[in-house]
């Protein structure tokens, strides 16, 4: 990945807002498809159709060879689950992650949703993961640095007895799905590149949280990331804009 951080112009930001709004709508469609008896492929179909109907492109499809519009990750699967024949059942938690490309720019968001009644631990994990995002964006302002965001996410998650994934991180976003800078969910070691936040940056803050230990593995399908200890995992992501005041959550919707 190039180290260049692309600062977006006013007109580029307007297109980012539109791409992100479509991504947020697609996430809502995916959330509504988390129902007992539906397959992960059916969840992907609901997301995919919404993106296309909105005049956008499902940017994950074909990205580095990924075979679907949506990453659908169940229970101990953290991210990058490949939709397929797996049936979602009551008690499962399902993470949905997607990107929408519109007029040359990309919006990216994710969330974890319960199917029916889930365990108390699962409910707490979902809530803490989402809240960790909101802890992180408190520092997504001019005057702070990237590491301030990850530090806040990490402290909040660990304070609730869970752990943050180290092997995957958030990222800048714009014309590219993954632009500089990296946005870790932890406090990076001293001396690592830690850019200042600047007005016009668009970034994805995406806590990936494990109920147990943070170590992960990749399955033989070369995509699905699972917790090594088999513990549950959750994910929550929004595309945000750094302004000269409060950050703007571009992929926000009222039901997430
Ligand atoms: N949307 C994911 C992210 O947060 C990327 C998905 S990987 C892909 O960066 F291959 F599916 F695109
Ligand atoms: Co992302």
**Ions and ligands:** 2-amino-4-trifluoromethylsulfanyl-butyric acid, cobalt (II) ion
If strands are numbered along the chain, what order do they take across the biggest sheet?
8-7-9-14-15
- Would you give the CATH topology? Creatine Amidinohydrolase
Helix content: 25-40%
What is the succession of H and E elements? HHEEEEEHHEEEEEEEEEE
Report the average pLDDT across residues. 97
- In terms of quaternary structure, the protein is single chain
Structural class computed from helices and strand pairing:
alpha+beta
N- to C-terminal separation?
30 Å
CATH superfamily: Creatinase/methionine aminopeptidase superfamily
Total discrete domains: 1
Under CATH at level 1, the class stands as: Alpha Beta
Q: Report strand %.
A: 15-25%
* Radius of gyration computed on alpha carbons: 17 Å
User: What's the total helix number?
Assistant: 4
Number of strands: 15
Low-confidence region ranges:
none
CATH architecture field: Alpha-Beta Complex
Largest beta sheet, briefly? Answer: 5 strands, antiparallel
Shape: globular
Task: Note down, in words, how this protein is organized.
A hairpin with a 6-residue loop joins β11 (216-218) and β12. Helices cover 27% and strands 24% of the residues. The protein has one domain: Alpha-Beta Complex (Creatine Amidinohydrolase). The protein is globular, with a radius of gyration of 17 Å. Strands 8-7-9-14-15 form a five-stranded antiparallel beta sheet. Strands 1, 2, 4 and 5 form a four-stranded antiparallel beta sheet that branches. With 256 residues, the protein is of the alpha+beta class. Residues 108, 171, 204, 206, 237 line the site of cobalt (II) ion.
């Amino acid at each position: 990945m190039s180290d260049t951080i692309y600062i977006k112009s006013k007109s580029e930001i307007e297109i980012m807002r539109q791409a992100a709004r479509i991504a947020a709508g697609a996430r809502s469609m995916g959330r509504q498809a988390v129902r007992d008896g539906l397959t992960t492929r059916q969840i992907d179909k609901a997301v995919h159709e919404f993106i296309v109907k909105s005049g956008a492109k499902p940017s994950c499809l074909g990205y580095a060879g990924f075979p679907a519009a949506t990453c659908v990750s169940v229970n101990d699967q953290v991210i990058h689950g490949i939709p397929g024949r797996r049936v979602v059942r009551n008690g499962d938690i399902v993470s949905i992650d997607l990107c929408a490309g519109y007029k040359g720019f990309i919006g990216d968001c994710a969330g974890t949703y319960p199917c029916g009644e889930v365990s108390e631990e699962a409910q707490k994990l979902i809530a803490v993961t989402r809240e960790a995002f909101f802890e992180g964006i408190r520092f997504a302002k001019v005057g702070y640095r990237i590491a301030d965001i990850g530090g806040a996410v990490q402290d909040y998650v660990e304070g609730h007895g869970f752990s943050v994934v180290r092997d995957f991180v958030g990222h800048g976003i714009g014309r590219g799905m993954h632009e500089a800078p990296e946005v870790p969910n932890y406090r990076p070691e001293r001396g690592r590149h830690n850019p200042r936040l600047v007005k016009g940056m668009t970034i994805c803050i995406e806590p990936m949280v494990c109920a147990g230990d943070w170590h992960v593995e990749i399955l033989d399908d070369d995509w699905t990331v699972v917790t090594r200890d088999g513990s549950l995992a959750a994910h929550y992501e929004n595309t945000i804009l750094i302004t000269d005041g409060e950050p703007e959550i571009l992929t926000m919707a009222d039901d997430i």
